[in-house]
Predict the 3D structure of the following.
Amino acid sequence: MPERNVVIIGGGLVGSLTACYFAKRGWQVDLYEKRPGKQFCLPTWLSIRSINLAISERGFSALRRLDPTLEKRVKALVIPMHGRMIHSLDGTQTSQAYDVFGKAINSVGRSTLIRVLLDEASQYKNVRMHFNHEFQQADFDAGRADSDLIVGADGAYSRVRQRLMAKVMLNYSQTYIEHGYCEFSMPPRNGDFAISPSHLHIWPRQSFMLIALPNQDKSFTVTLFDQLKTGQDAVEFFRANFPDALDLMGADKVASEYMVNPKGSLMYVKCTPYTYKNRAVVIGDAAHAMVPFYGQGMNCGFEDIEELDKIMLSVARDGMSDDQILRALDTYSSKRTKDASAIVDLALDNYVEMRAKVIDYAYLARKHLEGLLHRVFPKHIIPLYTMVSFTSIPYAAVIGRWQRQSLWLHRAVRTAFAAAAFAVGVASARVLGLRAPSLVEVARLFTKRS
Amino acid sequence: MPERNVVIIGGGLVGSLTACYFAKRGWQVDLYEKRPGKQFCLPTWLSIRSINLAISERGFSALRRLDPTLEKRVKALVIPMHGRMIHSLDGTQTSQAYDVFGKAINSVGRSTLIRVLLDEASQYKNVRMHFNHEFQQADFDAGRADSDLIVGADGAYSRVRQRLMAKVMLNYSQTYIEHGYCEFSMPPRNGDFAISPSHLHIWPRQSFMLIALPNQDKSFTVTLFDQLKTGQDAVEFFRANFPDALDLMGADKVASEYMVNPKGSLMYVKCTPYTYKNRAVVIGDAAHAMVPFYGQGMNCGFEDIEELDKIMLSVARDGMSDDQILRALDTYSSKRTKDASAIVDLALDNYVEMRAKVIDYAYLARKHLEGLLHRVFPKHIIPLYTMVSFTSIPYAAVIGRWQRQSLWLHRAVRTAFAAAAFAVGVASARVLGLRAPSLVEVARLFTKRS
């Protein structure tokens, strides 16, 4: 079996992890990245894009499969966030744990993580890195020895995907949401974190919100999600809506950062298939960009490559024929498009949860009940957030399971109400000396409500 | 006010009509078409794409607004089809009129119509045509004197739209349906049409169908819509499903045409917005490609330019400032995206209607009832097909109106049933000497069913 070569377009988080995986399986890897990346030591572009990252189980699982020590090294660099801290308008802070067993998602700097992964990739002798190289065009069918396979890990505005679109009948959609984002920073206070570092902070204001994630240097990255208007007086806006955050950040800083920092747009992408024959595949944001509200963009991208690796190994252990690659890519595409579509939808839904539902009583009551049940039946009742963030249950299966669970939960709540009503009825009847209601009568009362 | 210049990309049906409209309003027009088009006399590319065209009210309206004699000249070239002719498996033919007042849609050859329109455009001194010119790139912001405005009329795979996507936050989706198509021809028989020329012929077979539209030379263009399999024995397939068509087309011809003729795919496109500042707009298939099952693709494209012209004139009668163009394009985009989205959906739904519902009794009963009511209340009850094909009611309004109409129709049918039941009840009660049911009792019986 001849040596196989793969060209990876995009040296971001997903691209660099993909390089490691292919290298580990013995492929000759060429990684192309359009930005400069001299020596991998803090290239300037690493600070351009942010929205803090939160790495959770799916991300760790992919690192672990590649190399258990890599997972450990990354874990040493993160800040665990065990729950949400809700900031109300009067400054009250309320903690909401992510998981009844104390599991956490983990704040990590994009630049920190990407340096670790590029470093890791450079340890492989069969990885060649090419910075300052922009992907323009590719003849997917050329089949030259230096590119048996092209992997597009070139992000939401992927050019590889654009080429794919010209080659296959690609069902594709891109949708912008009406809100954009702007980043600010909250400096340390007296040498320490200004607010709890073990929480993801949220200032939910129904139609918009502010969030903050901790950084290693004890600062916070603060992000405003809203329909951003140009010329808006940011300080006035913060004073009216996030007065405690304004105090901690400083009016001057808020004003200048709102002026200087770019306003990003938020977009999600779905497409199917992900592949062209045995020649090309898109992965990560190039395949399924999502809004950042579930903290799953990178985790899903990492899981992509773990899934692809599993499928490739199940198809052929040593060396791969063209036909085996074709089968592996087909299998990958038909399974993964469904899972990615599910998390793209969940991420969109979670925006409403973060900015509004977290202060809704019915939501909190259900969350509490689900948490209790999860504690008693940890394998059978699993809250949605836990399934997404702390397990590797396929995203599409998560949605199915959650829908069934909701149905059962509603039934259980109704039964509990009926039982309570029956007990009250019997007791009142005794006290008043009347005929007690029959079980059937009470049951009828409650089944009518459905 | 300086003279305005427009660059139109795409010299197809919509592009050439657009050229006429801008020329009529005094703009300097440059029309670019990638295919050769020497002297407009039967350029070879005109025969490449077909799916026969059916022009109806919206298309005629746009021609009429430009020049009433143009409408007349086109009307002389079409073959009116007053209804569907349904071919059942045993060869029975059943005619279903399109309209109770005898209105018709009109079969016209793509090459015939495009020649008329290119000819028309060439009559304007301020139109320059550039064939063999392919659009590659454009700096929408350049604002050179030779292109105040760029109109992308370059079809479903529009490159202008691709540029637009790089400039604005474009919500975009393209979706392929599972079926493709393949064209055949049915020659004249004894010097005349082999089947009725005043019908659109359909062989509805639930999950697939064959259709035929008449041509001026007394042949028919026959199109198979199905999940086309390669290596399929077309003659066997026709013998099993369309035996009468096979007889009229000839087995040899079917076999060779299935082998030689390309198999097309079917795709629809939605996007919003259609415009970039006051600089660019997409129109026709470039903005809203649709599946061909409502025969509205071209009609909608023609209506696009009529709408744009109306809006431009309402904004400014003589000469236009940049700001006026901006306002006109914004208005056009926000209105037209909704209407186009509606007809894209209707066209998709109509595939099920054509291949399956036309032989469904409930569908036929409703159609009959709607037709009767339309005859009595021609302004108040208008069947869906009539609104789409024989009026200029905006497509989005058509859907709203049709939904309200369906609701009323259901209520009316229920009331009619209730009245009949009441009459039968009273009559039976008399005969049997029992208490007659009250109106309320009968009404209750029927309102429960909803």
